[in-house]
């Protein structure tokens, strides 16, 4: 049956009306992946030399054993962001004499056809053959290869499981990301433990206790079985549909939003759109990951206050930037319906402002732990939070009126440039330059707090005059609505 499923997918691909475009995209992606593959091969061949340079006082095998778990932690983070779920249109098979195990087995096995599963083999095998084989023999070589392959399989199916569960509940993705971030921070920021030491504790023991390779083997097999059982239990569409219906409440059941009337309903619908679709949900997930950006820079003493202005704007307003610039593109599939509906565009804009205010406020509150690096950091975050609510929100919505490219919400975000155009490039200039145009005239004379006050006052001024800017944006939209609609119709 596996060969039959594969044959059906090939036929569906060649018979699709977008075959030409799909081939072009796959050729470009294949070239990029091949170039990346060559870099990984070179890195694997010279890994022993690199480890000798990075850890000159540490034995090569010890340093190698110490980086393996660090690699797989980073590998999991990359898989959650970039690895796509294997798909098969199961509806045509549900009424045919095809066993559920065949369908589920195909989906589970094709998940192994990922370049992420190839990287650790290419990267670590040359070192194992060059260093571990001569030093510790064939048994140690086999156990290392088996353990690395098993951990790759474990990561593969764990990422698949998390992403499938996240399709029903978006919070699962955020929790998984937070756990990975805390694991990294526990080592590199707070120094509670050493990931390298934990890695050596296991892989160093493999040299003398090869039976320990059974542990990652069992972990990989157990995660495969868990995915298999989950897919088998959710193969019927009505089961998935009922769970989705239970997972999302209607706008009338959100007390905080119900007080805003029709604007609250629009915000609630927007939240549902974000959580239920891959591309829009990825904007929220990436915004959550960017909250940890400060751990990279605030731990360094070399960055001036001027750079903290950028960090504060970025961490408290990244969702406004990444999601807001596609304001209409998210509704591209039903944009014509919006044009003829009784929804007032003023309410539509107000809903965007309310949504951005809610998310940006949550982002600011989540950055409060950065008080560990000083109250000045939180003060800068608050100033830029006001700037985001007033200035950046208005700028983003202004440029969104000039984006005529549609977005297919069902597609994933990995290497997906749909909806991205010159507008996004132009948007970066005012977003990056405007706060510094206000900040620097005061800063060059040493008036730091006056500079912060000017930024906060500008942001508050835009918030206070929000109704004026909404009217301007509404008039701008009406002058471009038919051009936007025409652009969205071009698939």
UniProtKB/TrEMBL annotation:
**Record-annotated membrane-spanning stretches:** 23-49, 61-82, 103-129, 135-158, 170-191, 211-231, 283-303, 309-332, 353-372, 378-400, 421-443, 449-469
Q: Which Pfam families match?
A: DUF5687 (PF18940)
- InterPro entries named among the record's database cross-references: DUF5687
Instruction: Give the keywords, sorted.
Output: Membrane, Transmembrane, Transmembrane helix
Stated name of the protein: Uncharacterized protein
């Amino acid at each position: 049956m596996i060969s039959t499923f594969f044959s059906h997918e090939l036929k569906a691909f060649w018979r699709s009306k977008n075959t030409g475009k799909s081939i072009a995209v796959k050729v470009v992606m294949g070239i990029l992946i091949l170039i990346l593959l060559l870099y990984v091969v070179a890195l694997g061949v010279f890994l022993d030399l690199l480890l000798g340079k990075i850890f000159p006082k540490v034995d090569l095998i010890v340093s190698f054993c110490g980086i393996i778990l660090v690699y797989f932690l980073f590998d999991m983070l990359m898989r959650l962001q970039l690895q796509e779920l294997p798909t098969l249109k199961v509806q045509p098979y549900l009424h045919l004499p095809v066993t559920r195990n065949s369908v589920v087995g195909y989906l589970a096995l094709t998940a192994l056809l990922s370049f992420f599963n190839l990287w650790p083999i290419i990267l670590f095998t040359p070192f194992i053959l060059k260093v571990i084989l001569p030093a510790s023999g064939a048994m140690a070589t086999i156990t290392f290869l088996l353990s690395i392959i098993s951990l790759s399989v474990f990561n593969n199916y764990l990422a698949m499981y998390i992403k499938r569960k996240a399709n029903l509940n978006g919070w699962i993705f955020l929790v998984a990301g937070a756990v990975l971030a805390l694991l990294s921070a526990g080592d590199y920021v707070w120094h509670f433990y050493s990931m390298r030491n934990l890695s050596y504790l296991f892989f160093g023991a493999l040299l003398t206790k090869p039976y320990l390779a059974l542990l990652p083997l069992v972990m990989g097999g157990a995660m495969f079985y868990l995915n298999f059982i989950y897919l088998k239990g959710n193969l019927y569409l009505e089961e998935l549909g009922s769970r989705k219906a239970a997972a999302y409440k209607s706008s009338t059941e959100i007390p905080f939003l119900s007080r805003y009337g029709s604007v609250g309903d629009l915000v609630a619908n927007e939240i549902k759109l974000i959580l239920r679709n891959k591309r829009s949900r990825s904007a929220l997930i990436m915004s959550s990951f960017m909250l940890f950006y400060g751990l990279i820079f605030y731990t360094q003493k070399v960055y001036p206050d001027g750079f903290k202005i950028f960090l504060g704007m970025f961490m408290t307003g990244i969702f406004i930037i990444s999601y807001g610039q596609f304001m209409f593109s998210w509704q591209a599939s039903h944009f014509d319906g919006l044009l003829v509906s009784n929804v007032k565009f003023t309410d539509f804009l107000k809903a965007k402002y309310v949504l951005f205010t809610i998310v940006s406020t949550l982002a600011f509150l989540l950055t409060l732990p950065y008080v560990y690096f000083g109250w000045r950091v939180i003060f800068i975050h608050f100033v830029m939070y006001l700037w985001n609510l007033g200035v950046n929100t208005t700028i983003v919505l202004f440029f969104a009126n000039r984006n005529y490219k549609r977005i297919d919400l069902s597609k994933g975000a990995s290497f997906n440039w749909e909806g991205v155009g010159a507008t996004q490039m132009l948007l970066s200039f005012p977003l990056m330059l405007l706060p510094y145009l206000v900040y620097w005239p005061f800063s060059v004379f040493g008036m730091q707090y006056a500079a912060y006050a000017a930024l906060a006052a500008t942001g508050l001024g835009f918030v206070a005059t929000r109704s004026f800017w909404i009217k301007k944006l509404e008039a701008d939209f009406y002058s471009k609505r038919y051009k936007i609609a025409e652009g969205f119709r071009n698939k």
